[in-house]
């Protein structure tokens, strides 16, 4: 099938996401809230599949990883120790005419990109959201919504080592919400103020950090290609010295080639022993690891692979969005829109489509549907769709990225077979209902 040759229109993708139930504007009935998004029925499934794939690959399939789910609200001293209260800022400029604000490093001119007005001198803008704990809004009651999940891992270092008896090197993984009061947001779900992160803090002996850093970069790149992202759309970029965060010895970004250009989708940082040392100094607690070989207590170095779930979802949607020219049985040329999502992340794995709503077909179609969704060989969401013509239903499933459609027709009543249609090639083959679950399983996992 011919691939689309033009740049993907983000407006088209946004429209598809709303129409098909992937992503909605948050609080839309009240006019919406800027840069906040709600995941609809299909978006929830896609997002869950991304997180499950990451957790399976990075935690379950390794014997050097454990998980954690730390609280969003943490003691304010956490952020003093980590340097966030002092250093977590962006340079802000404001237009004197339209009063819009921009990150200084995101604009190329000395005038407002929207109206041409004069921009103010840059001033530092703090990115952490404040709130108050307890009934009184006073200075002593200030707490912060976490801007990253990492600090919850660092402050639990002793707890995890003691409870799991893990030996270096080992990692702690966490999936959870984070919040950043970004000055500039946009590009759909790419940059938002509330987002979900998948982070690992991988603890290693000092001196082994650079080798381990390189290995994590390859492992992370492999995960993206394994869930279907085209390798030619990915690249690694090393941070220049002036870009490095206050805690980092070295950082590499995995970038994706979006319609607007290369954008960061994951950071892999060498945080050295900065965080553990900082929390030791602030808390007075000893956060060290006893090395039985040397007989000494050491402060491990840390490699941090960190990515946003929302950006991973955005990457998959952009990478999978395809428009193809097809010819109908009558010879008419049509544009087929489809999401070529890998089956491992597709929000719907299989759709069961009776040829029509004829009452003779309904019992068998429902039986096939129940057998597929309850079969242990098939893991994931299965849909039943009998509304409109079979052609329209195929197109609907193509648009949401369903890898396989199973059609129950009148011949099925006699021969006990159904038709499996494959999304990308549109190839169809007849399969016995008795062997259907095994066949579907093989097609989904590529056996």
Strand content: 25-35%
Q: Output the strand order for the largest sheet.
A: 3-9-10-16-13-12-11
Which architecture name of the largest domain does CATH use? 2-Layer Sandwich
Distance between the termini: 23 Å
Helix/strand-derived category reads alpha+beta
CATH C-level label of the largest domain: Alpha Beta
Tally of DSSP β-strands: 23
Please state the overall shape, judged from the principal axes of the Cα atoms: globular
In short:
This protein is an alpha+beta fold. It folds into three domains: 10-81 and 127-317, BirA Bifunctional Protein, domain 2 (2-Layer Sandwich); 89-126; 348-445, Rossmann fold, CATH 3.40.50. The chain has helices spanning 10-20, 41-60, 76-82, 84-87, 150-154, 157-164, 209-226, 274-283, 309-320, 362-374, 390-400, 412-415, 436-445, and strands at residues 23-25, 37-39, 65-68, 89-94, 101-103, 123-126, 130-132, 142-144, 170-179, 194-204, 234-238, 250-258, 261-272, 289-291, 296-298, 301-308, 321-327, 333-339, 350-354, 382-384, 404-408, 417-422, 428-432.
């Amino acid at each position: 099938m011919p691939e689309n040759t033009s740049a993907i229109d983000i407006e088209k993708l946004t429209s598809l996401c709303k129409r098909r139930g992937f992503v909605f504007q948050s609080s839309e009935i009240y006019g919406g809230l800027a840069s906040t998004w709600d995941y609809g029925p299909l978006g929830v499934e896609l997002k869950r599949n991304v997180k499950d794939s990451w957790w399976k690959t990075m935690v379950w399939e390794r014997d050097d990883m454990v998980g954690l789910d730390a609280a969003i609200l943490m003691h304010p001293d956490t952020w003093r120790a980590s340097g966030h209260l002092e250093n977590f800022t962006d340079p802000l400029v404001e237009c004197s005419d339209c009063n819009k604000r921009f990150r200084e490093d995101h604009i190329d001119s000395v005038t407002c990109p929207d109206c041409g007005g004069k921009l103010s001198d840059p001033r530092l803008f703090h990115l952490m959201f404040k709130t108050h704990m307890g009934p009184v809004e006073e200075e002593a009651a200030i707490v912060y919504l976490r801007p990253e999940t990492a600090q919850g891992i660092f402050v639990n270092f002793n707890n995890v080592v003691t409870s799991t008896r893990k030996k270096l090197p080992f990692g702690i993984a966490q999936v959870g919400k984070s919040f950043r009061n970004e000055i500039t947001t946009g590009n759909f779900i790419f940059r938002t103020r509330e987002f979900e992160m998948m982070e690992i803090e991988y603890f290693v002996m000092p001196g082994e950090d650079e080798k381990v850093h390189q290995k994590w970069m390859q492992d992370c790149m492999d995960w993206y290609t394994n869930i279907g992202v085209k390798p030619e759309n990915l690249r690694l970029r090393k941070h220049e010295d002036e870009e490095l965060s206050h805690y980092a010895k070295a950082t590499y970004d995995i970038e994706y080639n979006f319609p607007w250009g290369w954008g960061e989708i994951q950071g892999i940082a060498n945080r050295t022993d900065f965080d553990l040392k900082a929390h030791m100094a602030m808390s007075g607690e000893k956060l060290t690891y006893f090395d039985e070989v040397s007989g000494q207590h050491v402060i491990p170095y840390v490699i941090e692979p960190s990515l946003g779930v929302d950006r991973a979802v955005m990457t998959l949607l952009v990478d999978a969005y395809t428009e193809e020219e097809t010819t109908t049985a009558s010879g008419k040329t049509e544009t087929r829109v489809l999401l070529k999502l890998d089956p491992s992340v597709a929000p719907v794995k299989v759709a069961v489509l009776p040829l029509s709503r004829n009452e003779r077909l309904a019992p068998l179609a429902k039986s096939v549907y129940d057998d597929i969704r309850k079969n242990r060989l098939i893991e994931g969401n299965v849909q039943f769709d009998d509304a409109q013509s079979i052609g329209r239903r195929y197109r609907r499933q193509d648009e949401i990225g369903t890898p396989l459609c199973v059609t129950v027709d009148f011949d099925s009543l006699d021969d006990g077979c159904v038709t499996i249609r494959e999304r990308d090639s549109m190839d169809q083959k007849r399969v016995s209902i008795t062997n259907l679950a095994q066949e579907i399983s093989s097609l989904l996992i590529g056996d």
